[in-house]
Amino acid sequence: MPYSIAPMLPEHWNAVREIYAQGIATGNATFETELPGWERWDRGHRQDCRLVAVEGDVIGWAALSPVSARHVYRGIAEVSVYVAAAARRRGVGRSLLKALVHQSEESGIWTLQAGIFPENTSSIALHKACGFREVGVRRRIGKMGELWRDVVLLERRSTKVGI
Known about the structure:
The protein is of the alpha+beta class and 163 residues long. It has helices at residues 13-26, 38-43, 92-106, 121-129, and strands at residues 4-7, 50-55, 57-66, 76-83, 111-116, 133-144, 147-157.
């Protein structure tokens, strides 16, 4: 592995934001259509589970978002994994997701979930390869412009936390 996985720091933000922009541009990575600023992104993600893949520059990132502020759901988080276009198909996403799973368990997370557009077959395959299972499809869950989109819901239950 010619790249390393490291904690995401605020100084990585410009590169993380650019990789996020590439994901948005595909039309199959997120419902988001505009890039957030650092403050908004930072508030929306857990502080303890943020990673970057670095090969000189940042070539990918992964982070967790809480699914609810309710105490009963404290061990459930939503996964985001993004890889720079030039670094795709090299195992960067798999390395990031495996490291994020490990870090999530160290942080007491018992369930990870991901909502992925059905057209994003690479992301679905990546998550399944890292122990996620398909829970179902949320039909017409949101609109992108005038187009209703489905989302495949995947989850991974920890074998170390909450058993």
